[in-house]
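Notebook, bench 3.
Goal today: get a predicted structure for Ectoine hydrolase from Natronospira bacteriovora so we can plan the truncation constructs. The sequence was checked against the plasmid map this morning, with no discrepancies at the termini. Length recorded as 388 residues. Pasting the sequence as submitted so the record is complete.
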Amino acid sequence: MRDHEGLSFSLQEYERRLRALRERMQRRRIEVAIITDPGNLFYLTGYQTTGYSYFQALVVPLEGEPFMVTRRLEETNVRPRTCVELTRPYSDTGDAIETLWHALQEFNLHDCWIGYERNSYFFPAYQQERMLASFDASHFVDCFGIVEAGRITKSEEELRLMQQAAHATEIGMQAGIEAAVPGATENDVAAAVHDAMYRAGGEYPAVSPYIVSGPRCMLGHATWEGRRIEKDEAVFLEIGGCMRRYHTAMMRTVWTGKPPPVMREAEAIAREALQEMLSIIRPGVTSAEVDHAARHVISANRLGAELITRAGYSIGIAFAPSWDEGYMLSLKPGDRRPLEPGMTMHLIPWLYGIEGDKVLGISETVRVTEDGCESFFSRPERRLFTQT
């Protein structure tokens, strides 16, 4: 009997996800789905590898066993870590699309309505064009989003795993705050964060923590570069902890010395904006309404600061280059999607450009409940930290 100890979830959980996918396929008259997105492959099977720059796919028929087409080296991850029994690998000198075609023929799936993820990051256009041009008997339809329709709300098993990721996030953030002292370098802070996260049981995140200080805080999506932290400046930290590819994220800000009044005012605004978001989130409220809850507070500031991004995004399964699921759901103006129980979001009511050259972020990762929301975190506090 096959050992399934390497699975992240129970077999029943994977069976539920596959069954739900097939129900969506049936409603859309899709007979075969070719799934290529790394996050979707992980969600449906438990399969993960960093080698996703090579073509990989899960082929899901309406009836019968799903199978995987992977590079031969990556096939070593299938049996120990997934619920999939069948694979059809290709060598480094082989042809992935040709292997896919022969596998579809082998299982008599080539003359079907086939759905494929047209917007999948790692299914490039040249491979899609070859597939569409070569599979003459097949009928293709874009099914991008068909798996994400299940991923957007998390099961109890997923929420428990995200709680473990939250523990790594909190421990890493606390270590980063304590290391952000004058005289230390950004690299010192990064080393402390990574050491703490991994010792707390965390795994490698989809993106390394964002750790910047002084004038470098104004750089979007920048991280440590060896700069020495000076007195009387900000250190901005945004950390994503990971457990079995599930992430939670947190922003906190440290001031090295006694914070000037402008930073205390920014702290109050950020906390108010975050509290407004937490108070409004519940099933049925739209993404735009949650964004507005933060944006109207921040836009009234007299500090020259802005909320220059969306106010939050879905978070959960992630592979590089991003730890978020923002393409599935983002909290931003004009988005009328209603929230549902089980959605998980990173709320980011941060202030950019305080007096033109400073930032402050206090964020939280939450899950939507039946009547509101709950944070995954209990520490560190939602405030501006100081170090001397």
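The domain at 11-151 is CATH 3.40.350.10 (Creatine Amidinohydrolase; Chain A, domain 1). The chain has two domains: 11-151, 156-387.
Flagging this for group meeting.
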